[in-house]
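worker-03 picked up job from queue 'complexes'. Input manifest follows; two sequence lines, order preserved.
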Amino acid sequence: MKKQNKYIETVKIGIQSSMAYRMNFFLSLLSTAFPIFIQFFLWRAVFEHATSETVYGYTFPQMLTYAVLSAITTKLVSTGFEYEIVGDIKDGGLNKFIVRPIGYFPYRASCFLGEKIMQLIIMLVVTIGAIMGIHYIWGLIIVPIRVVLFIVTILLAVYMNFLIFYAISAVGFWLTEVAALFECARILAIIVSGGIFPTDIFGDKICKILNVLPFKYTTQYPVDLLNNRLSYSEIGQGMLIQIVWIILLMLIAQSIWRIGMKKYVAVGG
Amino acid sequence: MREIKRYLKIYKLFIKNCLMAQMEYRINFITGVIVESGYLLAKALYAIVVYSTGVSIGGLSSDAILLFIGTYTMMTGIYMGLFYVNFQKIPEYVRDGSLDLYITKPISTQFMVTMRYFDFGMPIPSIIGGLTMIVIGWRRLNIGITPLHIIGFIGFMLTGILLTYSIFLLPQILSFWTVKTSGVNDISNALWDFNNMPKGIYSKRVQQFGTFVIPIFLISNCSPLVILDKLSIGESVWAISATILFFILSRFLFYKAMRNYSSASS
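worker-03 finished. Artifact:
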């Protein structure tokens, strides 16, 4: 099989596996709607009593857009393969990748891409529907070029989060009980990426630190871009930071995996 | 009475057995604490927003809202410790047929299935965090600590616990018919989070739905309302009645489900 073909096949497997539990996917999509619902009422109360037109720098339609899009984006960039990777490390599943002409990193990346394609399409439709709704009811301004840039930054964000959790998964080389660690990393990443509330709620000092870390660029940055909160120079700057972090994370993941592989004992037959 | 004593004795043995198991696998205990600390942080974000925006909801100040967030957080800890692990295992019992073994035991199958496990690690962060929020809110509101407040608060916490059991067992009972319930699980977990804010924040229709149809708002709204002297007699009576009604409903549906159970393994 040609080099590219095997990864295209892997992408196809990813698509198929994401389609296997459709009902489950739609139910979990529905569960994403509940926190948005709670936030809608919270922000409505906050803005009713606010003395100025903006809260944390957001107008009411912008905050609603944020609540909707951050929930969708969090779902979109979320991973889940880390448990499979640790399983591969623990049970010797990596063995076949050592002896066969297929790389583990491109295999995982293709699989992840395949699983995300359907989600990306569905979520994009939901996103467009949601922002159109907010546009008609609360007057959110939609700039078409920003929608295009949003899609580009979302793709970069998905890849960034993949790299973050691919690097974290390498912890499986050293520890066996990692489920809680992953869950904790997941929650913390959601909080500091602005997946629940904009990171502006933490105040200027913490915001400055979060501005240089990669997490914010997986959720808050693309959402703020679409929300008209960022100028075009800030958008360019953000995209550059995303690319720099992607390169850095690739290097970090590669180094950790290289060290980890030296510890790998290839159990199993 | 003798039956109650017997069940209490058995429950004590369950707790002892779980404590021994969790002390043997301490890493699980520690990781449970770590994960729940993460969730606690996510819940605390709501308190940060409430305080930094100074929002008031239906006449409730930020300190009063903190009472609600605290009670909800504490209730989450209790739910995690007493029921969550048990409820999560029910679809598993149905799927792999291990329920067969529980049916043969000379005690109520519902009791055995829903109360067998007790988690010591997971509730710690939520109970400490929730209690801290309640104490801070209570003190800042300058409300005296009277025996009536304490009895009312604890009393409605107890009805809240029973109501939690009765409402959140229902999606798991579904597994007797549908086998796979993870999607339903996601939704019931999301429903639980509605109590993160006082019910007064929601529209009238949502409040009515959450009070009379699926009374999730009665779980953690009544206790803080007692402290604030804002719980009417009608609401108190309904909270107690709904608890009894839903407990009967969960018993009835569990019984129905058991009649439908047709073992999975050989």
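worker-03 released lock.
DSSP finds 13 helices and no strands in chain B.
Residues 2-260 of chain B form one domain.
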